[in-house]
Amino acid sequence: MAGDTTHTLRLEAGTPVAGSPTDSLFRFTKRAGTIPLVGFITCTMRLRLDNLFGATLRSQPRAVFTLTAANGRTLTLRPRAPLGQNWATGIAGLTASVTGRVVSSRVLGGVADSVVTITFSDGQALFLTKTHGFLEGPSLDSYLNGRNRRLPLVLTALPERRLGASALGARAVHDYQPGGVFQRVSKDYSTRILCTQTWQQDSVLTRQLSRTGDTITYTIRTRRRSQITGACTFTGGSSTSYSTSTTTFRAVKETPELPELTANVPQAPLLTISGGYFASAATRSSSTRFGGRFEHSVLRRGVCGPLGIDSVGLKEPVADADVLWQYATGLGLTYFSFIGLPTSSTTELTAFRKGTQAWGTFFGPTTLLAARDVRPAAATTTVFPNPFSEALTVSFVLASAQPVGSAIYDALGRQVRTAPAVRLGAGSQRLALPTAGLPAGVYMLHLLFAGDGRREVLQVAKQE
């Protein structure tokens, strides 16, 4: 399929067809669709009985394949038919014929494979390969059901790229290095009203491989700001809170299912429901998103029971709650959404810095800090020379011995230099700061006094 879509198809195990010793019947996984919202409490998703190729696939001798939709319509394909010989597809007014057979390296991986071209009487062309089946063509459910939109489909991931493979497993998704920074924004809604918004920045401090080599343990510092709107409080007033914490995170060895990447996968507050449905998919991102990294989607949904008030009058099963996780190789969680009754929430990766790669726009240096924690430099704190060209030194007076760290941010709020905290004694002190390689411009220098629990901010300039 197109490189930035999330269509993944799966056939269930084939079963013999009653009355036929040679035919086998396969079922496609269902797919989800939306239904209009009515009021605040309603099911928001439904499961369509047809996938992009219908509901079932019947395999017959001599490579005759029949796709059947839930409505009973069929579409027959004969990839081994003689060149130019027309056959009736089963769709009124539509015939098909094989118009080409070649050995091509156009399939993924550049491996030579036999490719057959089937051309329909309406001008649409379908390309099938001997090894991987569908290669390119229209979504065939559009022939089986006139209400379905015709989509151009292209195979972009080989079957070997399955869940749990090296490019998709937990260790690949959670492959971090010290110095990496990941920024996310979360929003919680109640009856479509924004209640809480959270700005979060995770900084990777350490990485340690276990003796057995199957687990990587990270130390991650998280800085967070949460704002509750007055629309969702009894008092009608808003409030803001700030927090900083350091935690450990473990990425275990490759696992076969994405929901089990780690024990740290977020769990949405699913409602008590009857019935249930689970679907998962893996796909590759577009080249402009996250630098073309693989993205992986996990979808969980709870289905309305047949007697639920939300299901009255609906002929197809629908979902009370819809939960989606999206991951990208080396970036962890990139998107999360929960749609329930009547609450919903989202979390989105908005920026990251990993090695030499940076993506997105980072928060300003004061976004995650309370006003009381960001103070102008004290009269005893000076920096010289300012402007500076190579070296930069800051002097200050400490009332008591304590660790002191520093960080430099550019005009866009990105942290460009940092120095680990060092313990200094009481009295006058000097601290040399790392500035090598900084381009000319204006910067904000942050001094972190751990013992006092404060941060002083100074503006400095780099000259040519």
Describe this structure in words.
- The chain is mainly beta and 464 residues long.
- It folds into three domains: 15-154, no CATH class; 170-360, no CATH class; 371-462, Immunoglobulin-like (Sandwich).
- 2% of the residues lie in helices and 49% in strands.
- The chain contains two helices and 31 strands.
- It has helices spanning 141-144, 170-173, and strands spanning 15-16, 24-27, 31-34, 45-48, 56-60, 64-68, 74-77, 87-88, 95-104, 113-120, 125-129, 133-138, 152-154, 181-190, 193-209, 215-228, 239-252, 277-284, 294-303, 318-328, 332-339, 343-354, 357-360, 374-376, 382-384, 392-398, 402-409, 415-424, 427-433, 441-449, 454-462.
- Strands 3, 4, 14, 15, 16, 17, 18, 19, 20, 21, 22 and 23 form a twelve-stranded antiparallel sheet that branches. A six-stranded antiparallel sheet has the order 8-9-10-11-12-13, with no helix packed on it.
- A hairpin with a 6-residue loop joins strand 8 (87-88) and strand 9.
- The two termini are 50 Å apart.
- Residues 1-6, 32-46, 159-165, 254-287 and 303-319 have low confidence and may be disordered.
